[in-house]
Every structure is written in C-alpha cells, then in structure tokens.
C-alpha cells in the first residue's frame, strides 16, 4: 500500500512543490532507516545535490528512486539551479565558472573559479548559452559543441 504526499516549501525565493508516492506508514516504520527525518528535509537535501550523486542515490531505497525520477523533482531542481547564476568565461584551454552572487555581494572578495579543462590545445570560444548549456566553438578544428 502506498501513500501519495504533496510537499511545498521555498528555496532561493522559489516555491518548490513535490509529489511523492511512498510506502504506507506501517511499511515505512518497519523497513525505512530514514523514517526519523522529515520528508521535506530529505527533499531539500536531495535538491541541492549534483546530478551524479542523485543518480547514485536512486539506489538507496524505492522512495528516493520514485522521488528523484519524478518530473516535478527534475523541474524543481532546474528552478533551483537557475537561482544561483554563474558567470562563465573561456581562457586559454579552460572554461571558468564564477558564482555571480559572490561577485556582487562583496567586490573585495577573491572568488576562485571552477575550472573545466577542455582537454584540447586548441582555441575555444563561447558562442552562446541557453538554460545552462554552453555552445562552444573550436576555432582550429572548425567544430561546434554543446
């Protein structure tokens, strides 16, 4: 027997809604070691994790697999990720990502960028971006990558 629960809360100024189909209370109390954590807290934690971790955590239990696989969860994760914009710059063979919030809050703070090595000795330029995806142009190979 499964219960369908709706949860709503705010993260980064955005309303986040989740619908989770979970085992019934009797089933949960006997088999779920996380029964003492409120579902809302678990959802907030999962929403803040990198995608690679979420893919691993789908194997923790059926409840987490259902939650992480839910389209509403994916939509909420996208909304949260866009709430923390990044400034992206290409320099030599690296693409660097700077958190804009840190740059705007205190101009005297030194911000260490997150670097992504392109693995090429070629000249890479950023053509544009959309929904967090970058369109990169390799000048020497005359190729474009997303």
Automatic annotation (TrEMBL):
<dbReference type="Pfam" id="PF12937">
    <property type="entry name" value="F-box-like"/>
</dbReference>
<dbReference type="InterPro" id="IPR001810">
    <property type="entry name" value="F-box_dom"/>
</dbReference>
<dbReference type="InterPro" id="IPR036047">
    <property type="entry name" value="F-box-like_dom_sf"/>
</dbReference>
<protein>
    <submittedName>
        <fullName>F-box and associated interaction domain protein</fullName>
    </submittedName>
</protein>
<dbReference type="InterPro" id="IPR050796">
    <property type="entry name" value="SCF_F-box_component"/>
</dbReference>
<feature type="domain" description="F-box">
    <location>
        <begin position="31"/>
        <end position="77"/>
    </location>
</feature>
């Amino acid at each position: 027997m499964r219960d369908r629960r709706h949860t709503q809360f705010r993260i980064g100024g955005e309303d986040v809604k989740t619908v989770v189909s979970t085992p019934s209370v009797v089933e949960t109390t006997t088999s779920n070691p996380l029964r003492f954590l409120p579902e809302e807290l678990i959802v907030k934690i999962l929403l803040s994790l990198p995608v690679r971790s979420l893919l691993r955590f789908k194997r923790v239990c059926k409840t987490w697999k259902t939650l992480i696989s839910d389209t509403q969860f994916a939509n909420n994760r996208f909304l949260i990720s866009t709430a923390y914009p990044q400034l992206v710059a290409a320099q030599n063979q690296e693409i660097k990502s700077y958190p804009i919030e840190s740059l705007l809050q205190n101009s005297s703070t030194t911000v260490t960028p997150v670097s992504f090595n392109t693995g090429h000795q070629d000249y890479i330029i950023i053509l544009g971006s959309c929904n967090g995806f970058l369109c990169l142009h390799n000048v020497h190979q005359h190729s474009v990558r997303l």
